[in-house]
Amino acid sequence: MTQSQVGVFSLSSSIPVLNICSTIGYTGYMDFLKSNQIIYPLLKGIDVASRPFVVMRLVVQYNEKIVYCAQTFFQRYTDKAYPWIGGVLSA
User: Fold this and answer.
1) Residue 15 in contact with residue 43, Cβ under 8 Å?
2) First vs last C-alpha separation in the chain
3) Among 14, 17, 68, 88, which is most exposed with the fewest C-beta within 10 angstroms?
4) What is this structure's pTM?
């Protein structure tokens, strides 16, 4: 983990790590993680472009329908600590 990535994770050493290896989404964003891949409510990791990310497994209820989602926040650019943006994929 590089110095620019330490800031976000230094306060979160108890969050489990999700190893996505060299997986990358079609868009280049972190919107490919499926809710069934998220085995804890909150995970962190580093993507193939060395960008840190955090992902939450969410359960959303709309009327009588329940939808499981993976909401991911990640550092958009490898050479800048900010901005962070989000991507979501529902199951």
Assistant:
1) yes
2) 30
3) 14
4) 0.73
Q: Domain span at residue 12?
A: 3-90
Give the tokens for residue 79.
Answer: 């050479």
Residue 49, by phi and psi: left (phi above 0), alpha (psi -120 to 50) or beta? alpha
The string of pLDDT tens digits covering residues 43-57 is 998 888 888 889 899
Domain count within the chain: 1
In residues, how long is the chain?
91
Measured CA to CA in angstroms, residue 74 lies from 12, 62, 65 at distances of 15, 27, 28
SS3 4: helix
